[in-house]
Design goal:
about 170 residues; alpha+beta
């Protein structure tokens, strides 16, 4: 698949089949996440893909919506702010680094014909309890992973001129 096709194919999927995720697809997704650039190559995160039914249900219960529980797997992204690069003004790159890796995850899933949805609407403290994550680490994002149960909604975006400006 062409890179630009993958970008347009990636959508936020909110309905999943129960079909298992092939190990070969998962291996390629893991490779894509590992290839994501991070500041000073510090990689201040860990991706945990939860397939265990009971643990997945407990983690999904921290979400505001029900659809994460439908997917055969639920990803939790754990960030360690203390391991990230820090700029002189105090900026911490952990969230940026995690976001780049998460986008690699999302695009790789789309390339594999799998669906996902980046979830920020969850109780991070309860998710940390479920996964036994201790400070200075935190659960920064969740994402279900599986085959879409229905076609995604149409691809609608603002006009490019509204979000991108070239200054000569």
């Amino acid at each position: 698949m062409d890179f630009y096709e993958v970008i347009k194919k990636r959508r936020s999927i909110r309905s999943y089949k129960s079909d298992p995720i092939p190990d070969e697809s998962l291996a390629r997704i893991i490779t894509a996440v590992n290839a994501a650039p991070t500041a000073c190559n510090l990689q201040p995160f860990v991706f945990k893909l939860v397939k265990n039914r009971e643990l997945k249900a407990a983690l999904a219960a921290t979400c505001r919506q029900d659809f994460p529980a439908e997917a055969p797997a639920l990803l939790a992204v754990i960030v360690n702010q203390s391991e990230a690069w820090k700029r002189d003004d105090g900026f911490n790159s952990a969230d940026t680094d995690m976001a780049i890796a998460m986008e690699h995850f999302q695009l790789a899933a789309a390339e594999e014909g799998l669906g996902s949805c980046w979830i920020c609407a969850f109780n991070a403290l309860k998710a940390a309890e479920v996964l036994q994550i201790k400070s200075p680490c935190c659960v920064a994002a969740l994402a279900p992973l599986g085959y879409p149960a229905a076609p995604p909604r149409p691809f609608v975006r603002k006009a490019e001129s509204q979000i991108f400006e070239v200054i000569d």
